[in-house]
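Marked as duplicate of an earlier ticket. Keeping the data here for the record.
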Amino acid sequence: MMKYLKLALLFALTASFGTVPLRAQAPESPYQEARKIIADLNRIVTPNGVQESLTVELGGTRQWVTIRGTDREHPILLFVHGGPAAPETPFLWAFQRPWEDFFTVVQWDQRAAGKSWPLNEPGELVPDMKLERYVDDAIELIEFLRQRFGKRKIILLGHSWGSAVGMTVARKRPDLLHAYVGAGQIINARRGEAASYDWTLEKAREAENAGAIRELEALAPYPAPGPFDVTAMTTQRKWNIRFGGLYGNRSDVSQYFKLPRLSPEYEPEDIKSWGKGSDFSIRHLWPVISEVNFDEVRRLDVPVYMFNGRHDYTTPAPLAADWLRQVNAPKKANIWFEHSAHLMMISEPGRMLQALLKHARPLAVEAGDGEPID
């Protein structure tokens, strides 16, 4: 089973509910020199810039936070990662640097995730492995950031699993947010898994892939009643990834999972922690995710924007687009990323920045939490 669990961490949702443990490079790794070059290239050198990593106590546990931006006066953008336990911190070097010219970007390794994994005893985390605890952690972090940078509110971007956290924060504490951005948004986890399965099986039949058809049909009905099953999810995700539901037109996602090898933020031991935290969190949180359901939400008291990859069938994008049409909010918009699936920040980072600048940043500026773009 562990073999398949690690395969499903070929995403079993790296942004959408899981991640694949990455092999740490040896001390003499050929990547070390490249990491130094990338670190220097991405170094913040502006007078009022911020580039810091620190541990913050959230919900009685120590958690790792990375903060970067060229001007501390910029609006704060908090990226709430997917997985569970699939931090974007080791990937940020590949997409985030241009964002830092317009936002103070905060990457947060959630409890049991990435660099937060070794900071706490796993056994002590088990009782609080539930959505509500992650939501309260996020709220505590937002309050910390507001005080540290003197901001009224922040912009929250929730990706995949992080979108379940983010949407709940937006419902519970709209007063803390200039805007909520859902990327790879989970609306109804059970309906989403069913739609993902149907799409994957259809693609397998179109490809006449006998092995995929056999393994997928053996899962029916998928998802089964009750809490989600990790083993079944692993098989479904394996083929969903193969047919492009995670990374658009790419059936080989190895390039994505190799990006942390070049990360200036993550040492080899941190990459090991990323895998351990993922294994732990998937086991405890995947059954919990089966209960995520925002179908009945008809109003949000904060501007809401859906960033949808046209080819996303990890968290099927049509569900988020349909949901947004019936929601009342001060402002709302659905933005399609035509050349992306679930990983739009990697596939179309410029387009994602453009959408953030058009829709979210002006709201923070209007409220006095940032300067207009010249």
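See parent ticket for discussion. The longest helix spans residues 268-289.
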